[in-house]
Amino acid sequence: MRGVAALLILGAVWSGTAVAQVADDDPNVPLSFEEGIVLDPQDLPPPIEIPEFSKQTFEANNTVAAEAFTQKKYDMARRLAATGAEAGIGADMFLYAHLLRSGLGGAVDTVGAVRWYRAAAQKGEVGALLALAHMAFENQGGLAAGDGRAFLRQAAAKKSVEAKIVLGQVFLSGMGGPLDEEEAKRWFLAAVADGSTEAKRRLADLYYMQGKEAAAVSLYRQAAMDGNARAAYRGGIALADPQGKIHDEAAAAPLLRQAAHAGLPEGMTAWGLYIAHQKPPLLAKAARWFRKGALAGDGEGQYLYAVALAKGEGVLQNREAAYEWAVRAVRDDPEDGTRRDLALALARSLPGPTRARIEEIARQPLLVFANSASLDRNADPR
Predict the structure, then answer these.
(1) Class of domain 49-161
(2) N-to-C CA span, the chain
(3) What is the pLDDT of residues 75-96, one digit of tens each?
């Protein structure tokens, strides 16, 4: 599913001659980025992705320790939770373990956290089993990744829908044991039977990966009807792929629109590409959606918005702003040659001091946007 432009074969609408159009200077002049743009070893993704777990919350715990925690009085919460844990209160054991693991209110103690999570699990705290599984996959507190599946099975036996979904993930990825697609399917189906929309989306992902496109899209649509924006996005992409077995752009449109209006970053970019593909192409509207995706942190959106700014298609031409977004796009995926080529071409069209200033802006997080080169002439008030 990666690479919206490639799947939709719409990127050519924007990027076909972008590099040639912006390279005013001699293309043979060597030019390199600042060191921070180069791929560093720590930027490499892990070989196997850690499964997703929900954030632990304690607002529902009716204890004085939980009350202090919700008020962010972590020192007090830690003392009260320790006292309650020693007294055998399961909710306080769970909270105390979390505080030890996170280091809130005191030093980090992952071994102690494992001890108290185990104790909380014995008191019926299912969330403690999920936390233990997460720690196992992170190799924390003396646990190994292989321990994670056992904790998840215990939680699933206690009717934890999240545990079933995560079990599907780990069997699909090979985390903590052998990869087993049928076992992953079994756990996703169990969670679907419990009414989980997210499990429908993940089962659809599995079907799509196995080439069962019609079955995948059916599940994507069901999950999208339940409000799952990522399912809407993936279903829309599958239907919009002209090389797919179930290509249907008209059916893709409402799904991509749903994902975009739900605020999914890649959904906003994909909807912009879909709009750009219309006849005649709605370039201004497409550029606005590229900008929204870019601001939300989608690297493909950042690249496409840079192309729009560089060519002046749908927006006022602004090569300084285009360079900023091109640099951000490169930072998002340093190995993408197309993004790097665009950034280098734009860099050659700008004076050295201007490049340095924009590269400094591009180092800032997207939330720190007061000095951005791209906000002055292309703001979208909507």
Answers:
(1) mainly alpha
(2) 29
(3) 999 999 999 999 999 999 999 9
* Phi (first) and psi of residue 381, to 5 degrees: -65, -15
Low-confidence ranges of the chain (pLDDT < 50): 2-14, 16-17, 19-20, 23-25, 27, 32-41, 43-46, 368-373, 375-382
C-alpha 319/C-alpha 325 separation (Å) is 10
* pLDDT tens track for 131-158: 999 999 999 999 999 999 999 999 999 9
